[in-house]
């Protein structure tokens, strides 16, 4: 059932983001041919305009990514679309998991598109780069130190954990607002700010200077451990948030 | 296990301090069409939402087909809500796909055929449809399932009398005869003929639960007439000035 | 013929009476197959259970009988049909007298008026 839910969530996501992602990459490609040529030749084409448009699209993409996560949860599960989703024969946690996975993929996708568009924009001569012996070196390096891949994977995990934690925090804030019959939005915003402060206070207390030092010590001895610890620090509160969100959806759902 | 499809014991639901249902005991068997009748605000929609799991009871017990509300009961309940529930970018056929994916008892071809007979083009975008057409799509979704329990919340409110007949006929010719249909409405004269049983709800309590034939035989008047009598009785009630 | 249902009386006897009239009038000829419960219910806009009960009443009166393959068949028994026709006729006469008495005519006067109408 989770797979079926994901199918529909990803379809909705693709409807919204295929256009934005395509626009970002296309504008980056245009910039590649305008920005650097202008700088070289003193002939003004519309390079500033294209650059501005590119920046605007990237900004819009990031804003849209946040709105998407908020709306898919608040409208899709707690709004009128919830009438459909909550009468499907699935468990509430499956609904939440589907939205969470889709949201995390969207955010990471936006990050990837942002980074990729910078690469597209830079006038790198790809043909040269591919022949460059650097790749051979890189490959040999990885064969010699296969743990490097582990490190990269752990780094990806850390990014994923941070994303999941942020989304879980948004979901919990929205679910908290749902517990009240009036001023739900206001309460959600307040809850989000409250959670934000709470998390940073907890992190501040728990991760005292000494703890950070110890973490750093681990890092010098065991760099893998420190990244995993950092992921865990993100994931443990995220898991707690999600448990509460699922509990609210299961026991306190109030679609009026 | 009991033979009842719906069983409620001491069901109580409040929004804040205001009770919407206060102590509902109800048993409804399979294979019948039941009218859930009451004026606006009497708790009809609340009861239906509790049955399909969109609300949680404050107190009391509730079972559908012998199970507590959960994925199983949701798989045997076909729900027609009193509002639009779908995203605008979808087409009617996208919804049919979704229903086919999630409900084993959904009949895709039947849905397409029913759409055509109601004059709705299944490939059209929902965004371009009028309110009435969207309501028809929701009716098609609800009636294309071979469900054990159909929960139809105000299916004929807000449409003209000719369309009411059409909708009732669609319901009558398409429901699963082993299943039970619960229709909530305040337009009693329109549905009276199709009902086996009537449940009168007043201020969150069940005033009366009897078969339509019994009511007509005992009272010598139609359910509609009885309803008007009961609910007109105290016009100043609660006013207290 | 349309289905007419009054308030104040259970629905199924009204349905069964109207079905009987259709049979007597030959709308459903002797020996023919009656439409299914579902078809009749949809036509009258009533619940199938109610229509089922009305049809069961017809069977009890002998106007129809269940057939394992063909659903329900209208009886071919002329005596039964004739008896039903007479019952209906008597009901019409009774209601004539009731209506006339509501207008203030006694039975004799009502019969006289009926005769006058024919001349």
Task: Kindly list the characteristics that best describe this protein.
heterotrimer; A: 256 residues; mainly alpha; 2 domains; 10 helices; 84% helix; B: 241 residues; alpha/beta; Rossmann fold; six-stranded mixed beta sheet; three-stranded antiparallel beta sheet; 9 helices; 9 strands; globular; disordered C terminus
Topology (SSEs and partners):
The complex is a heterotrimer of chains A (256), B (241) and C (119).
Chain A: H1 2-41, H2 47-74, H3 82-85, H4 92-121, H5 126-131, H6 134-144, H7 147-178, H8 184-206, H9 209-221, H10 223-251
Helix pairs in contact in A: 1-2, 1-4, 2-4, 2-7, 4-7, 7-8, 7-10, 9-10
Chain B: E1 6-15, E2 18-28, E3 33-37, H1 44-52, E4 59-64, H2 71-76, E5 77-80, H3 92-102, H4 108-117, H5 131-143, E6 149-153, H6 161-174, E7 180-185, H7 188-191, E8 197-202, E9 205-211, H8 212-219, H9 223-232
Parallel strand pairs in B: 3-7, 3-8, 5-6, 6-7
Antiparallel strand pairs in B: 1-2, 1-4, 8-9
Chain C: H1 11-24, H2 37-44, H3 48-61, E1 64-67, E2 71-74, H4 78-102, H5 107-118
Helix pairs in contact in C: 1-3, 1-4, 2-3
Number of strands of chain C: 2
Q: What's the number of extended β-strand segments of chain A?
A: 0
Characterize the largest beta sheet of chain C: strand count, sense, and whether it forms a barrel.
2 strands, antiparallel
Element-by-element helix/strand order of chain C: HHHEEHH
Radius of gyration of CA atoms of chain C, rounded to a whole number:
17 Å
Average per-residue pLDDT of chain A, rounded, comes to 85
Provide the CATH superfamily of the largest domain in chain C: Winged helix-like DNA-binding domain superfamily/Winged helix DNA-binding domain
Kindly estimate the percentage of residues of chain A that lie in beta strands according to DSSP.
under 5%
Number of helices of chain C: 5
- Oligomer state of the chains in this structure: heterotrimer
Estimated radius of gyration of chain A: 22 Å
**Biggest chain-to-chain interface with counts:** A-B, 24 and 26 residues
Helix content of chain C: 55-70%
Global outline of chain C: globular
